[in-house]
UniProtKB/TrEMBL annotation:
InterPro entries: ABC_transp_permease (IPR001851), LivM-like (IPR043428). Keywords: Cell membrane, Membrane, Transmembrane, Transmembrane helix. It is a multi-pass membrane protein. GO terms for cellular component: plasma membrane. The chain crosses the membrane at residues 42-62, 69-89, 109-130, 135-152, 172-191, 222-239. This is Branched-chain amino acid ABC transporter permease. Pfam families: BPD_transp_2. It comes from Mesorhizobium hungaricum.
Length: 342
């Protein structure tokens, strides 16, 4: 038993979130169709929030840009996988090149294109972004989000502008979404456990000492920035394939606030917190949604979801400023009488 615990202890911070996701995913097997949709959307949000955590949690820099990367990934995937009706793409997206305009590709190609597109854009933007720090970096990330929204809202021949791209094949269900969420967790864990993750967190906690020790802070931030953008872009692609319809309004302030709120509630500096935050906020908002719909015993006014989420976020910031996980990861308890390794 002790030997097993010694084997599990190094991976425990990722293993527990994985078990939580598996348990949540299994709920969809024994539940109705609406619950399965809720589980699928929750898992996709886990992918996005974990993608946000990879950069924000390890660097300590708050980013508003990652929903912009999700939008880039969603549209890149849609260009490849759309549409179930052959005439929809030439009619609504006439600006696409011929190899996209007259062909439809499987979801795997769409996910790959989402990862590549978001990664390339992140690399280009990151060369400038990583030179900034603190509030300047956060403002720059918000500016990037606004630029993505403006470009995609007006690029009518390629993105359909403010109109929606419909007839996207709905290939994402609770099973695939859960697997994607688990993969995102292990990618984040692999990064934070690597030397790059350790060096980036060192620059977050003690930037002067890290720089004096030879840590190339900009390089570490760039690696985390690109990796987190790729994960967020895949999350956006999954979201488009889950909804079957895509509009740029879905990837702006509302989703940005929601992902940051989920990460803040769970704990910005904790991978387990990223997962716990999504689970808790989803359960809380769904309870309020049912109460708003009038089907519950207790009924509440419309719009209480947003108000309730705002109140919860304020309370967390006051009484638990480091989130529900208090900035810690899940750890395997020590065996009785055994001293922890220092």
């Amino acid at each position: 038993m002790t030997r097993l615990s010694d084997l599990l202890r190094p991976i425990w911070p990722a293993l527990v979130p994985t078990l939580l996701l598996v348990a949540s995913g299994m709920v969809s097997i024994v539940s109705s169709g609406s619950t399965a949709e809720i589980i699928s959307e929750m898992m996709i949000r886990v992918v996005m929030v974990v993608g946000l955590y990879i950069f924000v949690g390890n660097s300590g820099i708050l980013s508003y840009a990652h929903i912009g990367f999700a939008a880039i990934g969603a549209y890149a995937a849609a260009w490849f996988t759309c549409c179930t009706l052959p005439m929809v793409k030439p009619l609504y997206l006439p600006g696409l090149p011929d190899f996209l305009l007259n062909a439809t590709y499987p979801l795997e190609i769409g996910l790959l294109s989402a990862a590549i597109a978001s990664g390339i854009v992140a690399l280009i933007i990151g060369l400038i972004f990583v030179r900034l720090a603190g509030i300047a970096a956060s403002i720059a990330s918000f500016a990037f989000l606004a630029i993505v929204y403006a470009v995609y809202s007006n690029w009518d021949s390629v993105t359909a502008g403010t109109s929606s791209i419909s007839n996207i094949p709905v290939d994402v269900g609770p099973g695939l979404a859960t697997m994607a969420a688990i993969c995102a967790v292990w990618i984040a864990f692999a990064f934070q456990s690597s030397r790059y993750g350790f060096m980036l967190r060192a620059s977050r906690d003690e930037p002067v000492a890290a720089r004096s020790s030879g840590v190339q802070i900009r390089h570490m931030r760039l690696i985390a920035w690109v990796l987190s953008a790729v994960v967020a872009g895949i999350g956006g692609a999954l979201y488009g394939s889950f909804m079957g319809i895509l509009t740029i309004d879905s990837f702006y302030l509302t989703l940005t606030f929601l992902t940051i709120a989920m990460l803040t509630v769970g704990g910005i500096q904790s991978l387990g917190g990223a997962v716990v935050g999504v689970l808790c906020v989803t359960v809380f908002t769904e309870i309020l949604r049912v109460m708003e719909s009038g089907t519950a015993v207790v009924q509440v006014p419309k719009g209480l979801q947003q108000v309730g989420l705002g109140v919860i976020l304020v309370l967390i910031l006051i009484f638990r400023p480091r989130g529900l996980m208090d900035g810690r990861e899940f750890t395997l308890p020590q065996a009785p009488g055994k001293q922890p390794i220092s």
